[in-house]
């Protein structure tokens, strides 16, 4: 009896080992994939009230159980914010998909402000999901900053299609974001610097080079990516060069200290609806973020199946300035959901 049990255990061990090796061995293969010709890139047609346009996606790797669609921030930035993922996820066999939203650099850029609404972007994500063949058995969304807003809105409508949700560096209420920026982050700056920035904003002098100079020197390097600007990764500087200001300003506005004016997301708030989310959810906050990490922690308690990841050395782009914490926690969450541990 013991001999039979021993043989069974040996067989099980080698069966599992073979399965793992097969998975990693085939992670980068394009065999039987319809995007081999383009190296994983697909231009996906998106139907909108203003016609059909194409958005850019690129698949990295193969994993039939874990496919992570990355929703970039901005709005109007690009997938380039996520290029650091290539240093961590492939070795774990995790498939992820770059995606430039409509209006962003690698996708079509129609000139129609009526397209820049949360509701239309949600339907765009759903069309991307269908085109890529993603479903509740493998489909994860990771949204950061504005991408986190889009991820929450998508999940509140289509969570039946999701296996897991990651809300990275984004709170669930713009009014609360405004309050944190104006009452906590702003006053942390040198008084004379903050006063000068506020005067420039009061004068609507956002195109003044001095405004950008002050933000980079005193705000972005403290709360967006905690490195001197000369040391920022090339992928981030390239991403900033590729921003579509029409999309960004239409939805986010000019100010970096809250959403003001007639920006589309000015009054966005789903904090009272978080309890509707039953899909496993990871919220990621950081000590030096532009978003209140305590609110991110609270969000994880409001969803029905939540977990919080705190990046103690990170800021808004924690995937760069606190990589060890960020990717360790993200990978563990993806594996735990896949193994039904959460």
Describe the model:
- With 342 residues, this protein is of the alpha/beta class.
- The chain has one domain: 3-Layer(aba) Sandwich (Rossmann fold), CATH 3.40.50.
- 41% of the residues lie in helices and 15% in strands.
- It has eleven helices and eight strands.
- The protein has helices at 2-25, 118-132, 146-158, 174-188, 191-202, 209-223, 234-241, 245-251, 293-302, 318-321, 323-338, and strands at residues 41-48, 51-60, 67-71, 95-100, 139-144, 164-168, 281-286, 306-311.
- The chain has an eight-stranded mixed beta sheet with strand order 1-2-4-3-5-6-7-8, sandwiched between helices.
- The longest helix has 24 residues, at 2-25.
- The chain is globular and about 60 Å long.
- The two termini are 36 Å apart.
Which SSEs are present, and which pair or pack?
Blueprint: H1 2-25, E1 41-48, E2 51-60, E3 67-71, E4 95-100, H2 118-132, E5 139-144, H3 146-158, E6 164-168, H4 174-188, H5 191-202, H6 209-223, H7 234-241, H8 245-251, E7 281-286, H9 293-302, E8 306-311, H10 318-321, H11 323-338
Helix pairs in contact: 2-3, 5-6
CATH class: Alpha Beta
Largest sheet, spatial ordering of strands: 1-2-4-3-5-6-7-8
Strand content of the residues, in percent? 15-25%
Oligomer: single chain
Number of domains: 1
Q: Please tell me the CATH architecture by its name.
A: 3-Layer(aba) Sandwich
Q: Report the radius of gyration as a whole number of Å.
A: 21 Å
Q: Structural class given helices, strands, pairing? A: alpha/beta
CATH superfamily: Alpha/Beta hydrolase fold, catalytic domain
Report the strand count. Answer: 8
How many helices? The count is 11
Helix-strand sequence: HEEEEHEHEHHHHHEHEHH
């Amino acid at each position: 009896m013991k001999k039979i049990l021993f043989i069974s255990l040996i067989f099980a061990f080698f069966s599992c080992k073979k399965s793992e090796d097969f998975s990693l061995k085939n992670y980068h293969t394009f065999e039987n994939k319809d995007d081999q010709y383009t190296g994983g890139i697909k231009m996906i047609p998106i139907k909108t009230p203003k016609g059909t346009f194409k958005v850019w996606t690129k698949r990295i790797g193969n994993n039939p159980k874990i496919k992570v669609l990355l929703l970039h921030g901005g709005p109007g930035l690009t997938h380039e914010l996520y290029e650091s993922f290539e240093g961590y996820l492939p070795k774990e066999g995790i498939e992820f998909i770059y995606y430039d939203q409509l209006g962003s650099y690698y996708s079509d850029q129609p000139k129609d402000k009526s397209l820049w609404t949360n509701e239309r972007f949600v339907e765009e994500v759903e069309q991307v999901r269908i085109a890529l063949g993603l479903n509740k058995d493998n489909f994860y969304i990771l949204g950061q900053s504005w991408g986190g807003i889009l991820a929450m809105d998508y999940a509140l409508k289509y969570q039946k299609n999701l296996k897991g949700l990651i809300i990275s560096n984004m709170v669930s209420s713009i009014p609360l974001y405004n309050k944190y920026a104006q009452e906590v982050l702003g006053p942390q700056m040198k008084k004379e610097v903050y006063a000068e920035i506020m005067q420039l904003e009061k004068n609507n002098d956002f195109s003044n080079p001095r405004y950008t100079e002050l933000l980079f020197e005193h705000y972005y390097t403290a709360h967006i990516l905690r490195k001197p600007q000369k040391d920022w990764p090339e992928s981030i500087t390239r991403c900033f060069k590729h921003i579509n200001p029409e999309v960004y300003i239409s939805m986010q506005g000019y100010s970096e200290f809250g959403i003001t004016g007639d920006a589309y997301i000015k009054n966005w708030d789903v904090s009272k609806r978080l309890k509707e989310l039953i899909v496993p959810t990871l919220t990621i906050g950081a000590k030096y973020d532009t978003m209140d990490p305590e609110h991110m922690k609270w969000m994880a308690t409001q969803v029905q199946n939540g977990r919080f990841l705190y990046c103690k050395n990170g800021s808004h782009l924690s995937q760069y300035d606190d990589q060890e914490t960020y990717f360790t926690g993200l990978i563990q969450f993806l594996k735990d959901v896949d193994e039904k541990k959460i």
